Amino acid sequence: MPNALIWGASGGMGQALVRQLKSAGWQVFASARHTDRIPSEADFTYEFDANSEHSIQQTAFFVAQETQEIDLVIYTAGGLTYEKLDRMNYEDWQATMNSNLNGAFLTAHHILPLMPKGAHMVFIGVYTDHIRLPKMGAYAVAKAGLEELVHLLARENRRQHFTLVRPGAVDTDFWEQVSFSKPDNIKSADDVATAILEFVQADNDGILEL
Questions:
Q1: Which end of the chain is more exposed for a tag (fewer CB within 10 A), N or C?
Q2: Buried b (16+ CB within 10 A) or exposed e, 195-204
Q3: 93, 99 in Cβ contact below 8 A?
């Protein structure tokens, strides 16, 4: 049975991935800030906070107690502070960087030793040109940095696969944090999760545009 680890398993994308992976026969390790929101289908659950390297390191340690190898890692954690840059305080800026970029780096740093040759690490990105909007500055900067992070991880770790997903608009609680409306062509989290798993199972990597 292959093993998958989802970071951010309490959000819409994370929940959909947990359920679909389990249905497809994977053993699922699920980590999130709000563990009570992780689907019951997960085999193991852990609490993690993208603002805390210690919690990420601890989760990696706990996972290593249960298995020697992780075949698929998906980082779905994220968040934003919807505010103009000149009005945003540093704590909110840093929280946005941590959830979208620094947390991605730290999870890769601490879990890569458990990933064998051919294992796959997936990150949820955005179409960065679509989010260069007022009050979205910190989020846009963090997601732009995430693209470079994924590219460099792939260059430095050629034994594993790395993918950045650009899903477009997805129907999650993201829309509760912003003032603009959902677009008509918004995708469901389940549809995006299905596309990600099909991409991974086809042994693809790089950029997945949906």
A1: N
A2: bbbebbeeee
A3: no
